[in-house]
Amino acid sequence: MWAAEIPAFLPLFLAAAVALFTRGYIRGGILLGLIVLSGIHLTMIPENVQVSLRFLGYDLMPYRVDKLSLIFGYAFHIAAFIGVIFSLHVKDTMQQVAAPLYAGSALGAVFAGDLLTLFVFWELLAISSVFLIWARRTERAYQAGIRYLLIQVLSGLILMAGLLAYGYDTGSLAFDYIGLNGIAGWLIFLAFGIKACFPLLHNWLTDAYPEATPTGTVFLSAFTTKVAVYALARSFPGTELLVFIGAAMTCFPIFFAVIENDLRRVLAYSLINQVGFMICGIGIGTALALNGAVSHAFNDIIFKGLLFMTMGAVLHMTGRINGSDLGGLYKSMPKTAVLCIVGAASISAFPLFSGFVSKSMVMTAAVEEGYGWVWLMLLFASAGVFHHAGIKIPYFAFFAHDSGIRTSEPPTNMLIAMTIAAVLCLAIGIYPNALYSLLPFDATYHPYDVTHVLTQTQLLFFSALAFVWLNLRGLYPPELHSVNLDAEWLYRRLFPKIIGRGFAWMWRTDRQLRQALVGRIVRLTEHLARLHYPGAKASRLRPTGNMVMWVAVLLTVYMWLLLSFIE
Amino acid sequence: MLMADDTKHFFDNPANVQRVLYLLYFCCAILFILDFIIHRHMLHAWEELLGFYAVYGFIGCVVLVLIAKWMRTFLMRDEDYYDRFELDQHELNGGDHVGR
Which pTM does this prediction carry? Predict the structure, then answer.
């Protein structure tokens, strides 16, 4: 019997502790070794292991292994392994400790069997990941990190409120199907929704991820949103609202991605678009749709990681990441360019690449369940994702006009990490059954039939044709140094302005009131002083003769009164 | 980081760019013709239209880019739009009511 009760996050937390006290190759070796061991450990755990305990009158289950949590566990191990290789050259202990801690928190969250344990790891995810943003050590990264942390911790607080209400209502804290029943369900839904980047709640991602370090963003892209996807798949499958939220998430970010200049921010928008497909699948809630959502999460962790790695490599080597500053890098970074194209083909769901075998499950489920309009939105988003992530990213970084930058390929460890991810993208695309065998629900699906291959290829090639046509006609918007307003404007500009103006008004009114009062006091003292100036009323001298006369008058009046009584 | 050298690369030759474009046009043409030959199985009414995926992909992308371009007219700001505000505010250390 394998030591099944060792929770999956423990080796990663141990790795973080070791990373604190080791340096160089030893640190890298131990980190990778522990992740590999933890991964092997995970494959040997029998399904449906549960660890239960009682705490404050509630049955808690801090550790639960089933098929749904296992596939996320595998994906997180792959992401951590690739991410650590990618960042082997980094000598910054803050990042090297934060990364395994962050990966471990994600593992803890997906293997949590109750909401309280989930909450603990939910907050640990926020606290550990923010250091990957602050590690950039710029003023912008610091500010973005603060905003990121505030929103993430807020999500945790809402989850806390939700789980308390849920425990009060049902007497149980089980992390299973919850559904949108009552205030508790809605609060938990909102908490998950913030981390899953629901529309209008999404800007923490596009704000913070591009400000993180070149290696930090690779970790960030893998864990937080996928934990939220897992949580939604666990607690809200088949919630119809999610179909429409997911469809909106696939569509609106691609418009921003087309006009965004920072290529890592383009990828951040594209990440929301991909999560939209997963959310949509969870909302549809059939076995096929849920399998699609889960497998797409698995693939997205790898191909989005690959794309963030290639852009991280570009940023690392050139110090630039804006589309307007780059171009022509295929001349000096040909290997990175090829790896980027593999990632781009995977996210665009070209046949033989990983996106093809998972995204289509969600789309097929959508049309089968009668969501025709949603299907059309997803199809539009599929063409759009090819446009902004599949073409724009490689084109503006590696081709387009020659920026004149000549650099070299990134360090070997970066190339190895990207190659592993690229090989996985192709392997899953060519032999999807390996992935399908891990899926939690019973549904058979065959991605490679003539119709699907033909229609998807048509969609993509004609999207490419549209790109070429728009470019040749000069209609394609040029890459410009700019900021595009998004929902974040509310809390980055409007609220601070309102609050700033509110306080300014308060200070002003307060000052006016105090000035008016002081003015009156000053005028009163001046008036009193004026009364006492030489020649003024209060300072005039009066002769004693006056006094004698008035005493005489007074005595006369008394005399008169006295005489009148006697009579 | 070095600056540009004189070595000629593949896409420095406009003829090579043109070759890639011709290859793309050729693939698109083949794929469109295949729509007449291969009978697709369909789940959505719109799929029955001939060349639906090709037309939808093309028009979808053109509309996407044109709308995004139009969005620039009211969403685009200077690159330091937030920095100007946030980084200054930080420097003043919250004392922006002073001296108003």
Answer: 0.89
